[in-house]
Design brief:
The protein has about 600 residues and is α+β, with helices and mostly antiparallel strands. It contains 23 helices and 17 strands. The termini are far apart.
Length: about 600
């Protein structure tokens, strides 16, 4: 009886704790006091994070700053990135956006990276780390206050809609993304929900990028009552603000947990068991075919984005649901997300994938090898500027003093070698020299594994690609990737000069990437293009692929078309041949 009474009492207390969560509306007096601390009472508490949130949750600010939601990068040994190190959105080149976080954090448009990321300031740009000691400076408090708690935890939020001017301590002016620090937002604080996550993450799943909107009309999980509250964290479990990312991602991505580890694993079997089907024949496919392959039958959106020398961008979609040609102009004006998705939807392309990939988002895997399974992907090719002079970032990374600075600022991992790669046989960039007179063989190598150049989208508005590349290189050099410069290290001046505003227009060319040539050591039929992993867009079971889609000459595998690199012609332009999905996988119906 006493045990039952104790259990009943505990149940009552637990119920009360859930129903009587802290009322943030009681903090109005504190909010007004914090609002006045910056010298102006304007209804926006500039010191909100450290002076109000931090009163109770100071340790949580530190937690957030240790996650990839703040750093935008991590070590990822499953992605072959020449030079090793820590990478992610911080420095990932994108054909869709034309740049990366370092270059376009404060770009005034929906493509400004700082619109979403949790920090007001780009990490490392405020001198918050002393490069000699690796310890925080006085500026760290300003950076900590720039953490935006409310973008995730406020139900009512209207920030990140514009750039606002701020006067720095030295009197200079700078523009930063506006954060909502009003009482309206503060009084609506609570647990995160699906809508809060989608403030930032809806674009990644939209037709513009991955083509699998996480919406009730397109994914059975978010449409399910079992996923109410925060549908995202039902799978992407959270602990101390760190989130499970999942291991099978083909693009450069950052992760709070080691990629490839059990703690970072995100499996359908967690809810659906290892034998989810009534028919044992279907259960027998699980070891060779990812669940997503059958249950995400569609993707959509732009499949080719090209940046022109005059600064304009043109985008195309596939000519048909099976086509290998990017021949349909991609326009979305006046259309809803669902209308865009319906207009441009295509069948995913299927490749063997063992969890490893190239830095150009090319999945690695082979039938019956290293746990490879067939996965679905969205194809994407990019018309980006690439270096043609032989420049390689490893020329800079070879300097030991620069490496020391990069380790202290978190952009390299202790023990990284400039030529380190994740996959044997990859990483041909490590063999480059800074010699501008390149052999034909080296030119071939550069076409197969190019050094991508980012674009400063602000300067691209001037109508020329050259100053946009020049500025992007300068920003890259002065970012955390190259802060070793502040040590005054002796380095190769000719190489460094191109990162200081001296990159000539005859040192790059805009070309369509990737050709797939660099992957043909793994598969002679490896297709051209990058491939974005599909994990959302799970449709009702009645729409899953049928047996004949994979085991018939009239199904999806036979219909899906790919371009495969065949050779370079006399002008160094790639020539392709066309194959179907059976050829890519090396299987027969």
């Amino acid at each position: 009886m006493r045990l039952k009474a104790l259990i009943a009492c505990f149940g009552i207390l637990w119920s009360c704790s859930l129903s009587h969560a802290f009322d943030h509306g009681s903090l109005y007096g504190d909010f007004v006091a914090v609002d006045a601390k910056d010298g102006k009472i304007d209804g926006s508490a500039d010191l909100l994070t450290t002076a109000l949130c931090g009163k109770c949750h100071n340790d949580k600010i530190s937690e957030v700053m240790s996650t990839v939601h703040y750093t935008f990068r991590s070590e990822n040994k499953m992605i072959d990135f020449p030079g090793g190190g820590m990478h992610g959105h911080y420095d990932r080149s994108s054909g869709l956006t034309g740049g990366n976080t370092v270059v376009n954090y404060y770009f005034d448009s929906e493509r400004g990276c700082g619109r979403c990321h949790v920090g007001k300031y780009l990490p490392g740009t405020m001198g918050e780390i002393d490069l000699l000691t690796g310890l925080p400076t006085a500026n760290m408090e300003k950076v900590r206050n720039g953490i935006d708690c409310l973008i995730c935890h406020a139900t009512t939020y209207s920030g990140r809609d514009k750039l606002v001017e701020e006067i720095n301590a030295d009197g200079t002016k700078a523009k930063y993304w506006h954060q909502d620090r009003t009482w309206s937002a503060v009084s609506s604080i609570g647990r995160t929900n699906t809508a809060a996550c989608l403030r930032c993450h809806s674009e990644a799943a939209s037709p513009n990028e991955r083509g699998t909107p996480f919406a009730t009309w397109n994914d059975v999980h978010i449409a399910s009552a079992a996923f109410s509250g925060n549908a995202c964290t039902r799978c992407h479990n959270v602990g101390k603000h760190k989130m499970v990312r999942g291991n099978n991602i083909a693009e450069i991505f950052a992760s709070d947990y080691p990629v490839g580890s059990a703690e970072n694993e995100l499996k359908c079997e967690k809810c659906h068991s290892a034998k989810p089907h009534d028919k044992e024949t279907l259960n027998g496919h699980v070891s060779r075919v990812a669940c997503q392959t059958c249950h995400i039958p569609w993707t959509s959106g732009a499949t080719y984005s090209r940046w022109e020398l005059d600064g304009t961008q043109t985008e195309f979609a596939r000519g048909g649901i099976f086509s290998a040609e990017n021949s349909k102009p991609y326009t979305t004006a006046g259309m809803s997300e669902r209308e865009v998705w319906e207009t441009y939807k295509i069948r995913p392309r299927y490749l063997w994938f063992n969890g490893k990939a190239s830095y150009l988002a090319q999945p690695i895997g082979s039938k019956g090898v290293d746990g490879s399974r067939i996965w679905p992907f969205k194809p994407l090719s990019s018309g980006l500027p690439v270096d043609t002079s032989g420049l390689r970032m490893a020329d800079i990374l070879d300097d030991a003093t620069l490496q020391l600075g990069m380790v202290k600022t978190g952009s390299m991992v202790p023990g990284d070698a400039p030529g380190a790669t994740a996959v044997a046989g990859m990483g041909t960039l490590a063999n480059r020299t800074a010699d501008s007179s390149l052999s034909w063989k080296l030119q071939q190598e550069m076409m197969s594994a190019p050094l991508l150049l980012n674009l400063d989208l602000d300067l691209l508005r001037m109508g020329s690609m050259t100053p946009a590349i020049d500025s992007a290189m300068t920003k890259t050099y002065n970012s955390l990737n190259f802060l070793g410069k502040l040590f005054g290290a002796a380095t190769d001046a000719p190489v460094l000069s191109v990162f200081n505003g001296n990159y000539r227009s005859d040192r790059f060319v805009v070309t369509t990437l990737p050709t797939g040539q660099n992957m043909q050591a793994y598969n002679a039929n490896y297709p051209s293009g990058s491939f974005l992993t599909l994990t959302h867009g799970v449709r009702p079971s009645g729409e899953a692929l049928k047996c004949y889609d994979c085991h018939s000459t009239r199904g999806i595998m036979a219909g899906n078309r790919f371009k495969v690199f065949d050779r370079l012609d006399g002008s160094m332009s790639p020539v392709y041949r066309e194959v179907n999905n059976f050829d890519i996988l090396g299987i027969r119906p």
